[in-house]
């Protein structure tokens, strides 16, 4: 959703009104005295100490705190926790209710992979990997600064390190090592510009040192911050935060996947998604009425492109007000018929909900506002009087205070009423947006009216269209031109305390300026001096707003459909969000660059941040796509965990059926995706249980192969399918890296023995995408693709056995009903192939009539060699050198078959 363009005049005004910090920015950080450790208590698993300011306060950006405390806990063999906090315990700490802390096993340090050591005066600490004696973190490079509104900690690093993470950003996957600033401050970031802070807050980095191992460092802090990576005065990474404490978790690895697993123990395990959530989704901003939605559904069907879910942006709302319907364009009776039609055809429906609530109550009753007022759950002005009023899509709006104890009940009530299955819009999932929180009205918001629309007027929906020429085959009578429609005229239907933040700070204009691309920290959001119900301030909790809306929304969906897995796609996230929701990557543009960048971005969320249900807007949101970009993007998007075509209201239409090439690309790609749906679903289930990522950057599989460390345009879908999209406009070739080992071309089954080299693939049509199966794997596929995922579940399986150098392979398959929150009968099947025998073991509790209908061993007979592009030319599957065994093999019990 596009951010309203802030006028330069206002931005400039407000920025200068807030100025004054720039001079002090040059303050003499390096004259800061640091701290001295005393009263060190060491009881093995736990080390505590008092830290006292070691000299004259430097007050670089405010007031130095004199007394700190250190607490070090050897929590597990692979996790070491270092916490430096204010002795008074006032500085903001993220509540347990939003980010539950992992429990500590308090292990004997002798059993830890990591070692903590320190110097007392000045106080510095370092973390070592014991097996190699490699220093992983060392704060001696610059003095520790801990002020009321500025915290600094610097660690030395080896030169040119391989660092990943610190999202959300669209910078290179491997982070820059020189002159680089990563700012974390959640922001409505139209066009997802590189070098800027975007929607999410994920302060974890992976530090990969090849054969010396990988470790992770997570800073549990909601504070706005600049993380600087630079190589002057030695290579370093430096945190510069506006508040909070230093709450650092060191994760020992030693492999990248180990770090992912160890982080999942802190962030929480990824939430399971409904099976149908992996279907193909269509959306756009600017579907002008319910007829337009019906037409798109029909067009997909006629084009024979499987459409699982139809989405609607804010267009459905009355003047863009949440929890209302436009009575002219999206009347409730037709909306209910549309949703019934979709459900009758095994399809789904989703709409967007924004947090900001219009404060207007005219024409269409605004229950969402009135009930919020009754329950008094909206944010108040900083001076405590009245509700803070900003401006979002509907014009003047108020914002739910998620810290209010009644906010959940309020949110539940809105969902129960507006999305009532019998009388309302019976949605199947939810899309939440603008929850950074975004506010079009720049600080200080003196006139929210002025930002209600680009022309300064209340938002005007498009005129109602004459529907007499709109024949929509297959849809109910009400949608047909002969019927006169019944149109509904209107739808009736505090002070601070422990961990709440240090009192007396300048909450609007902190001395240190983070590099927020929106300007001052209160720009285009809820002002940072607005107090939350519990007594904390937006200054400290801004980055939690999207997470809190996500949690409230998940609860609200569960209230209306108990015991069914909610699919929720959010824009703003915080560390740990993946245990509640999925996410899309916001407002990208229809650019080849954004098509390429999306690969690193989905890897960051799925593999590093433990938020696997992620995708970018396919074909691009802003600007106009082209036929070839959209065709390529359809094939790449089929390998995003969340696969949705979405675009903006001023862009040309880009539904897949609009161009022949795109339609063919989409049919091909959806077919592969659906056949592999259980394969990826099995990986999601594994990630939800273990934290092992369901997408893998190449270096996750080949951590000692330096060629893989910077690769950001190829990835493994699941463990075993290497996806290598064509990257350039008009190109039909791409140079890819094939790590050392055996691979099989997905399309031709051709066996490729790679010694670890870059190879050029040629003649790749716009309707296809290079895919390679890793030797040593067994891939379960559905026998055929289908029109919906409901039909897909009735399809039998086939197994593809892709053997390794020793003619062995293994794989797995997880089966459940795909929808129930608490599953009581699941199957977790392991496949192992060796010595010509396929063995199936595991648990077999999910009842199904579906069987494994046949098994194909790839490349075991005569290997096909030669031009690896030949398979693309004829388009069809050319099975080269395969042994095939006919089934059926039951999925109800363990068994073994010889070939
Ligand atoms: C480990 O490294 C530290 C710091 O680099 C050094 O002081 C120490 O002697 C090393 N220990 C061993 C066993 O090499
Ligand atoms: C560092 O980056 C800034 C902003 O991107 C740029 O203006 C400056 O020239 C760079 N400095 C060096 C030493 O590269
Ligand atoms: C990196 O260091 C150079 C030299 O000290 C400095 O000019 C530059 O601003 C630094 N970059 C960042 C992002 O801190
Ligand atoms: C570093 O990151 C910026 C984004 O801030 C990017 O635009 C730039 O190209 C990168 N520079 C290098 C040398 O990689
Ligand atoms: C898909 O096929 C099934 C079975 O033929 C049918 O019931 C359903 O309506 C179809 N759905 C769509 C969207 O085509
Ligand atoms: C915060 O304010 C609420 C409501 O005014 C009150 O109930 C609560 O006790 C306050 N908390 C603190 C820590 O002052
Ligand atoms: C996209 O195409 C439309 C229709 O041709 C045009 O009005 C619009 O200006 C284009 N947008 C951009 C960003 O080029
Ligand atoms: C791709 O081909 C189109 C049509 O021939 C052309 O307009 C465009 O400039 C080409 N793009 C590039 C990057 O060569």
Structure notes:
The protein has 899 residues and is α+β, with helices and mostly antiparallel strands. Among the domains are: 5-267, Immunoglobulin-like (Sandwich), CATH 2.60.40; 692-898, Immunoglobulin-like, CATH 2.60.40.1180. 18% of the residues lie in helices and 26% in strands. Strands 1, 2, 3, 4, 10, 12, 13, 16 and 25 form a 9-stranded mixed β-sheet that branches. A 9-stranded parallel β-sheet has the order 27-26-24-23-19-18-17-29-28. A hairpin with a 4-residue loop joins strand 8 (145-146) and strand 9 (151-156). Helix 7 packs across helix 9 and helix 11 (627-637) packs parallel to helix 12. The longest helix is centred in the C-terminal third of the chain and has 17 residues, at 592-608. Mean pLDDT is 92; it is low at 3-28, 483-495 and 861-881. The structure holds 2-acetamido-2-deoxy-beta-D-glucopyranose (8 copies). One 2-acetamido-2-deoxy-beta-D-glucopyranose (NAG) binds next to loops. This is Alpha-glucosidase. Belongs to the glycosyl hydrolase 31 family. Residues 271-682 form the Glycoside hydrolase family 31 TIM barrel domain.
